[in-house]
Design goal:
Layout: E1 2-7, H1 14-28, E2 32-37, H2 45-48, E3 56-57, H3 61-78, H4 82-99, E4 103-107, H5 109-118, E5 125-129, H6 133-140, H7 143-155, E6 158-161, H8 164-173, E7 181-183, E8 204-208, H9 217-225, E9 233-237, H10 241-249, E10 255-257, H11 264-268, E11 273-276, H12 287-294, E12 299-302, H13 307-310, E13 320-323, H14 332-344, H15 346-359, H16 365-389
Parallel strand pairs: 1-2, 1-4, 2-3, 4-5, 5-6, 6-7, 8-9, 8-11, 9-10, 11-12, 12-13
Helix pairs in contact: 3-4, 4-5, 5-7, 9-14
């Protein structure tokens, strides 16, 4: 099958990592994939080094950079940003015409909308995956973005959701699209031979996430600082100006900031427990939780988005501790209590580790590919049935 993926950027984020991993997995499975990027000026080269098999396409970098400058001026003058959009429509149309894909698969609203425009002359089947942005606009009441999202959802052929919360919100906001919505968890290439999780000599809590305050970095520091054991460690993986400012203020020598990593599993192997005390309003299916469980690390996280279901195995056992409070002001104390408990209660720690082995199975990339192929092939069957009807 020939699959054309589209996304806006390739900067650090769960959606962007997933697009690369999904494209790579389809290629490894024998399918033809091309990936079109709307903003080649926003590609982190460190992310794509391990995905060299994925062919990337985009408009000329210099052309996009100049168009971005023009759009900034137009945004100030007339509240419009048409230049980048127009260029991408033209170049993406050229890719569709040359590649002749069986299906288009876009990720994130700008890519969804541009793909619809580029596809007008071709009528290719179009699948979208809802990550965080469509839901974020609804939660924030951004009417302009909600209207664009509504148009997208009405036009595309299939809508893939990754959480129950997304299904609930979209069913209420756009009830007419319910028949074309399917829930598919993001897949992850799980390690085949992850070794049993042994506690490190210096018990180490760790966190890897986007470098924004809402992921709960400060709350993790505050909770950890209440732990009296001087041999315990806290290690952070991520980068941003915000994290740089936290590092400058940090006086506890037990806490280290390791910066960006493009090998999250290697980073997580240094941890005993993975943290994600997030209060991010648009949290959906954080890849971090999958990665912690992939290496049998117990997880301490809030109940934001789909996290509670992610951490649960088929028998209802939890791969760690869930914190019900997820506002910036209420997380610290229950987070501290959970960290203290999982560090001191060895049997509980190992039970959570065992639960992680079972809970992570539902995120296998093989199952994810199978589910998406069913969606892709279903659209092919509909297309063939329509042709036969005429």
């Amino acid at each position: 099958m020939k699959i054309l993926m589209t996304t806006e950027t390739l900067m650090t984020g769960g959606a962007e990592w997933f697009v690369l991993r999904l494209s790579d997995a389809f290629i490894r499975a024998g399918h033809e994939v091309q990936l079109f990027i709307l903003r080649p000026d926003l590609i982190d080269e460190r992310m794509i080094t391990q995905f060299k098999s994925v062919p990337l396409f985009h408009a000329p970098l210099k052309l996009i950079k100049n168009a971005v400058r023009v759009d900034r001026v137009l945004q100030k003058l007339v509240k419009l940003q048409p230049t980048v959009e127009s260029i991408n429509k033209r170049y993406l149309s050229n890719v569709i015409e040359a590649f002749q894909p069986d299906v288009l698969h876009s990720h994130l609203l700008p890519a969804d909308f541009t793909t619809i425009q580029a596809n007008q002359s071709f009528g290719k089947r179009h699948v979208i995956t809802i990550h965080g942005d469509h839901i974020q606009y609804i939660k924030k009441g951004n009417r302009k973005k909600i209207e664009i999202s509504k148009k997208v959802l009405q036009i595309v052929d299939e809508v893939v959701l990754i959480s129950d919360e997304q299904k609930r919100i979209l069913s209420k906001e756009h009830p007419a699209i319910a028949t074309k919505c399917t829930k598919i968890y993001n897949g992850y290439p799980l390690p085949e031979n992850s070794r049993s999780n042994h506690r490190h000599e210096n018990f180490t809590f760790g966190m890897i996430a986007r470098g924004i305050p809402e992921k709960g970095w400060e709350q993790a520091i505050q909770a950890f600082s209440k732990i009296e054991n001087k041999e315990t460690r806290l290690i952070f993986f991520g980068e941003s100006e915000y994290l740089d400012s936290l590092k400058l203020k940090q006086k506890d020598s037990r806490i280290s900031f390791a910066g960006f990593t493009n090998n999250p599993l290697q980073a997580i192997s240094q941890m005993d427990v993975g943290l994600l005390p997030t209060y991010y309003a648009s949290e959906s299916l954080p890849t971090t939780v999958i990665e912690y469980m992939a290496l049998q690390k117990p997880v301490i996280a809030t109940r934001a988005g789909e996290i509670a279901q992610m951490m649960e195995d088929d028998s209802g056992q939890i791969a760690g501790v869930l914190i019900s409070e997820h506002t910036a002001e209420t997380i610290t104390e229950p987070l501290f209590q959970a960290m203290k408990h999982i560090m001191e209660e060895t049997d509980f720690y190992h039970k959570c580790s065992e639960n992680a082995v079972q809970a992570v199975v539902k995120f296998s990339m093989e199952q994810c590919l199978s589910n998406y192929l069913s969606i892709y092939q279903a659209t092919e069957k509909i297309e063939n049935a329509n042709k036969n009807a005429h």
